[in-house]
Amino acid sequence: MPPSFNLPFVLSVAGAFLASSVVAIVYVWPVVRTMPRHDALRLLAAFHAFRFLGNFLVAGFVSSELSPDFASEVGWGDLIAATLALVSMAALSWRWSIAVPMVWIFNVWGTLDLLNAYYMGATKIQNPGLFGAGIYIPALYVPLLLVSHVLVFMILLRSGPEEQTP
Predict the structure, then answer these.
(1) Entry pTM
(2) Cβ atoms of 60 and 107 closer than 8 Å
(3) Residue 43 falls within a domain, yes or no?
(4) Which segments cross the bilayer (predicted)?
(5) The domain containing residue 30 runs over which residues?
(6) What is the mean pLDDT of each run of 10 residues along the chain (166 residues)?
(7) What total number of domains does the chain contain?
(8) Residue 93 counted as domain residue
(9) 46: Cβ–Cβ under 8 A, 6 or more apart, which residues?
(10) What DSSP character marks residue 2?
(11) 2 falls within a domain
(12) Does residue 42 belong to any structural domain of this protein?
């Protein structure tokens, strides 16, 4: 028997991905693609610095019935991603020679962390209500974050000098 899933929750996540993608295509990408590379990357990394908020490690934020292993892995993954985002922002701001490699590390880690959290949630958490106050994270914030990770990859993969404006 295949695992059950909560259709309203899945539709909420899918809707958030669709809305995030449309907003990124229509409003965000036209602006960031014309910015100098370091500035665009710094702006997008700033969005990820807020992954400290609503952390699953905070007692009472999620149901006490939620797997502590799941909450711990997701919580620590977000804390590491937020820290990498902040370090990337500093490196970009101060034009450190490791700035772009640091953004690659942040972006790969952050993307894999979010995909891992979705996978673990889909395979181990049958009741999204266990997320408690944190339900907005997988239903709204993670789609926004994943779409912004795609934008970062698009900027990183552009060819040309670091500060070239298309």
Answers:
(1) 0.90
(2) no
(3) yes
(4) 6-29, 41-62, 74-92, 99-121, 133-157
(5) 7-51+60-156
(6) 70 96 98 97 96 80 89 92 98 98 98 94 86 88 97 89 48
(7) 1
(8) yes
(9) 85, 89
(10) P
(11) no
(12) yes
